[in-house]
Amino acid sequence: MLDLARSMARDLPDSDDPGQTELFEALAIAQLCAERLLIERTYVRR
Question: How far is residue 35's CA from residue 29's CA, in Å, rounded to a whole number?
């Protein structure tokens, strides 16, 4: 999941600044976690 977040951050425009890239990575991780949580709550395992 971290590799996916990093690649998402690198694909964003203006990601040359290291601090901004870290912020983009954190936002991408948060988005992936939120999506996973939504999926887990939507499709409950039985």
Answer: 10
